[in-house]
Write a structure and sequence with these properties.
4 strands, four-stranded mixed beta sheet, alpha+beta
């Protein structure tokens, strides 16, 4: 993860929560993210905050847990927060987010 930011790489990053109470929703969101990413032919990097005891900001990560972001040259350009999305909205929001990023930053 540190290399991703230090090398100013570009790509999608999902931050899993360290809270046990979020495990089920994290796994559901991640399954859907990975499915759509495969359809869209993009890679997703997953960072499990449970494996890191510090502040993400110290790593240069400017997003919160349970979010999907696109980084370009090491800086977050676009962010999708799942906090206020219903289960019915998740699939379409992930798909729209990835397609928008591809249009705005990749293609």
């Amino acid at each position: 993860m540190e290399q991703f930011i230090q090398n100013k790489e570009s790509g999608f990053l999902y931050i899993k929560s360290a809270l046990d109470s979020h495990n089920e929703s994290d796994e559901q969101q991640l399954r859907e993210i990975e499915r759509i990413a495969e359809e869209e032919n993009v890679s997703i990097l997953v960072f499990d905050q449970e494996s890191y005891n510090g502040d993400l900001f110290n790593l240069g990560i400017t997003q919160y847990t349970r979010t999907l972001a696109y980084y370009q040259n090491g800086k977050a350009k676009k962010n999708l927060d799942f906090m206020n999305l219903s289960e019915d909205q998740i699939t379409s929001e992930i798909s729209n987010f990835i397609q928008d990023v591809k249009f705005d930053f990749i293609d």
